[in-house]
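Input record, target 12 of the design panel.
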């Protein structure tokens, strides 16, 4: 715990920028007691998945590119930019955000009664003591097991708009 608290104290001495408009990511930083600004990344997230050996490499690269885009746009040496990306992986296949409600229903049927992975990568981009740009990353891979989802449950969930 003291190691984590030490890092939090060091973070508080930086100008922290969250490269995301995600309410959940904002909430996480607020719960840590950090002061930060939000500057959503304009990185297009169009990396060719076939160029990556694993989904983990893909999500890590997306997080880095999001943070690097904001860091270079702001060009402030005191900034610590935090970028993140999350993907869902089923059978080594990255599931994109659903295109529409029919796609959301199909994905939920595919996930029903099965195990999948939710991977989140976080990238920290900042200037080091000699003025160079440093990138540090961390990654979390969580295995999630869905129970069987019946049609009514899928419909109720899709109707909330949450999967979109």
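The sequence produced for target 12 reads:
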């Amino acid at each position: 715990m003291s190691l984590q608290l030490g890092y939090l104290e060091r973070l508080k001495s930086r100008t922290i920028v969250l490269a995301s408009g995600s309410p959940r990511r904002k909430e996480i930083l607020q719960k840590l007691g950090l002061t930060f600004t939000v500057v959503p990344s304009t990185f297009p997230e169009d990396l060719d998945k076939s160029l990556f050996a694993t989904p983990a490499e893909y999500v890590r690269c997306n997080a880095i590119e999001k943070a690097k885009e904001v860091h270079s746009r702001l060009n402030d040496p005191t900034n610590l930019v935090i970028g993140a990306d999350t993907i869902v992986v089923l059978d080594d296949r990255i599931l994109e955000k659903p295109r529409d409600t029919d796609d959301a229903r199909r994905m939920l049927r595919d996930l029903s009664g099965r195990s999948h992975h939710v991977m989140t990568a976080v990238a920290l981009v900042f200037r080091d003591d000699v003025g160079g740009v440093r990138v540090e990353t961390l990654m979390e891979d969580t295995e999630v097991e869905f129970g069987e989802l019946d049609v009514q449950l899928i419909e109720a969930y899709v109707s909330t708009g949450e999967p979109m």
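The mean pLDDT is 91.
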